[in-house]
């Protein structure tokens, strides 16, 4: 779909790396590979706040026959080196390290979260809060903190992130009373369970969340099933937002009749509407290395979110090459829109996405698109 208000509002050139948590520690030049995948909330002032994932990378990652990557250790940042002959560097976001019994990956960048304050409509930058940045603080975050998703439940903001390390690829939780100062609450989901989205409201006194466990093996659905085996959006419940129990009924599953959603995952935290919980999610169509990422939406039952009331198989958002044309020299992947935030804008929703793993995109989506 096309929307009247749809633009990039923040990108690599808007980040001041002299104020980065990594500044002055590596002895090497870095650059912003991407400033993208923003969590979104509305502050008490009425302004919006994006928690932007800043992927900071070495300007020259390959030299002297080695591939280099950044790692946090004991409060400092350092550079590791890997023999080039052991590495597959075909994906600009990561490299695979060969020679072991398992698939081993390292990242070409380290991510931290930067709070960017926007005008109430999300279209103008008001302030960039470097002093409130969220960066690694423990061994299980040594390769970065990624992809904030922010929900308002009661009087608290809850922000889930992916924390990356050799120990585990975990989901970590932060909380805030004002949406700007964040308190680390700990690990809430363990290895390779990504895209955790906490519902914006309790159901029967419990917290609910969407999750997306990953694996290398999935069992087949029977022949003729309308579902496709692979990653799906599951559900979990909690009494306190800290201790989560998987819900027994499945959530949103990929349909067998389209390759456009052959792999799926959560996008925005589900928000309550009169018609049901509105959730935006991503579907990935296989193509080359990365695939084509699009944004879709579903309505879930208000009392039982495992009941999908409606799913629109037409994409709500697709990558828009016109938006990134001024940044053509910085593009390293294409065909990717990754929606991560939503808030009410009156007769429309303000939707925040990462465009091409490069910049932050704000789209005003009329509520009429969802039948509101």
Automatic annotation (TrEMBL):
InterPro entries: Glyco_hydro_beta-prop_sf, Mannoside_phosphorylase
Gene Ontology MF: a single term: hydrolase activity, acting on glycosyl bonds
Hydrolase as UniProt keyword: yes
Record bears the keyword Nucleotide-binding: no
Keywords: Glycosidase, Glycosyltransferase, Hydrolase, Transferase
Gene3D superfamilies linked: Glycosyl hydrolase domain, family 43
Annotated Pfam families: Glyco_hydro_130
Top-level lineage group: Bacteria
Family membership: Belongs to the glycosyl hydrolase 130 family.
Protein name: Glycosidase
Native organism: Sphingopyxis macrogoltabida (Sphingomonas macrogoltabidus)
Organism phylogeny: Bacteria, Pseudomonadati, Pseudomonadota, Alphaproteobacteria, Sphingomonadales
